[in-house]
Amino acid sequence: MNLNVQEIRELMADLEKSSLRDIAITDGDFSLHLSKNEQVQAPAPAAPVAAPAANVTSPSTPVEAAAEVAATKAPAAGKEIKAPMVGTVYLKPKPEEPDFKSVGDHVEKGETVAIIEAMKLMTEIKSDVSGTIAEILVENEEVVDYDKPLYRVTTD
Predict the structure, then answer these.
(1) How far apart are CA 78 and CA 137, in angstroms?
(2) Angle at CA of residue 110, ends 109 and 113, nearest 5°
(3) Nearest 5°: CA angle at 134, between 151 and 105?
(4) What pLDDT digit, counting tens, does each position of 45-93 carry?
(5) Model pTM?
(6) Over the stretch 12-58, which tens digit does the pLDDT of each residue have?
(7) Strand partners, 117
(8) Which one, of 3, 127, 107, 105, lies nearest residue 61 by Cα?
């Protein structure tokens, strides 16, 4: 599936008019995520945020540079801890407390590394691997999709 710029703009307009907050379309190696959630810090009109795959470009829409770089980067060494659900990820147990894990911290299998909020329900995300946190792949309070990598862990 490939969409041209006009079709993406039409999807953005439809999303803007609807009560949905975001939409994700995946077909093979094609992926498109449109969201009304304000994640871009650049001043822009109240347009949805588009994070298209590398084969779809839309220069007139705000695009998260991190998502574009992540799509083109070769996978790094280590095992990833992935989001088991769609929702808002919290890397801290409470807003005033430190992160569950930082780069360089050791993590044990079964240890809580994040919380994902979906429909007002908080779900603890536990590590499925033991090792050292090599990279944190998401920001606190970022909206994540199913199977999105949260951490990269160098195994013991």
Answers:
(1) 13
(2) 95
(3) 90
(4) 444 444 444 444 444 444 444 444 444 454 567 899 999 999 999 999 9
(5) 0.52
(6) 888 788 777 777 877 777 777 777 766 544 444 444 444 444 444 44
(7) 88, 122
(8) 3
